[in-house]
Design goal:
Blueprint: E1 2-10, H1 14-21, H2 27-30, E2 34-39, E3 50-57, E4 60-72, E5 76-81, E6 88-98, E7 101-110, H3 115-118, H4 120-144
Antiparallel strand pairs: 1-7, 2-3, 3-4, 4-5, 5-6, 6-7
Length: about 140
């Protein structure tokens, strides 16, 4: 099992931070390893919505589809994928620190299989570094706007 949680405080109001972060189409702007994202469903983004991601991690190209499992606007987004060698769940939680700052908690957890199972002990620290860098990029984008 791999379970990594990272967090950062962004000097922007909760609704602005959550609104931007919870839109998966914004992911390529702040996730270093994500090359492209596209919605697979029409209509509102909500529970059951599916989004296709193209990414690169550990030197490998990855294509996977996330499905929204939980969505509480402004508070929580949980997406998961059952595809590939590393089925994973990604959770975003948002907490107001005060009226102008928001804490973002990013959690990735999953049960690797196949080759990924062999490198699982190395994955957690690599994911933590990548997630920390991605949250810093998110902070930079949101605090600049």
């Amino acid at each position: 099992m791999v379970d990594v949680t990272t967090s950062i405080v962004i000097r922007r109001p909760l609704q602005a931070v959550a609104g931007y972060t919870m839109d998966p189409l914004n992911a390529p702007a702040w996730y270093r390893n994500i090359g492209s994202v596209r919605r697979l469903d029409e209509g509102e983004f909500g529970v059951g919505a599916r989004t296709a991601f193209e990414a690169r991690f550990l030197g490998r190209d990855l294509s996977y589809t996330y499905e929204v499992k939980e969505l509480v606007p402004g508070q929580l987004l949980v997406m998961s994928t059952a595809q590939g060698p590393f089925p994973m769940r990604t959770s975003y939680r948002f907490e107001a620190v005060d009226s102008s700052s928001t804490r973002v908690l990013l959690r990735n957890d999953g049960q690797p299989s196949g080759f990924s199972k062999l490198v699982a002990p190395l994955m957690a620290p690599m994911m933590r570094r990548a997630n920390t860098a991605d949250l810093r990029a998110l902070k930079s984008i949101l605090e600049a706007s």
